[in-house]
Amino acid sequence: MIDERIDEFVKSVFLISEKGAHSYDHTKRVYSLAMSIGSKAGVDLKVLGAAAQLHDIGRPREAQTGESHSVISGEMSRPILREVGYTEHEIELVVQAIRTHRFSESLTPTSIEGEVLSDADKLDAIGAIGVFRAIVQASMTGVGIDGFLSHADEKLLKLHKMMYTEQAKTLAEKRHVILDRFVSQLREEIQSNVEN
Fold first, then answer.
1. Does the structure show a pLDDT above 80 at 58?
2. For residue 107, which of 74, 92, 114, 171 sits 20 to 30 Å off, Cα-Cα?
3. 14, 58 in Cβ contact below 8 A?
């Protein structure tokens, strides 16, 4: 069901800027999660699929402009969506889902598609994959173990309680256990090294 033309466009964006935790691989996982959750939640899969594919394409420009990537991603999405035949109404739904998916801006999704996208994006930030992504990001930004632990405390360990859909809530609880165990074990080993 993936739109190949949109996929080519997303790949081209990440080809020149892919780095860290927000990559084409992340996009593929979010798409897969969103479509799995969405197919059971009775959403518009065409809108959801496009939103999931395009939700992070503004990340590279965010660093340059300081504007939220969710705003940039939505605006960057309009031309490609028109090119592949989305109606203006569908485009607005995609843009709105992208705009409201971001946890850190404290926005509430205005549609079920936005809720599913937000859930899928948050799910990819927890569990084993979430641990890997957070470590990659901490390494790239140079914040090290302390930065990783701060990020876990401030954001990652809270995400399992912020899901909208029932399926995402179930998945999040399982992934949270893995994240929580890793963070606890890391702290234990750090403390052990300090005491020795």
1. yes
2. 171
3. no
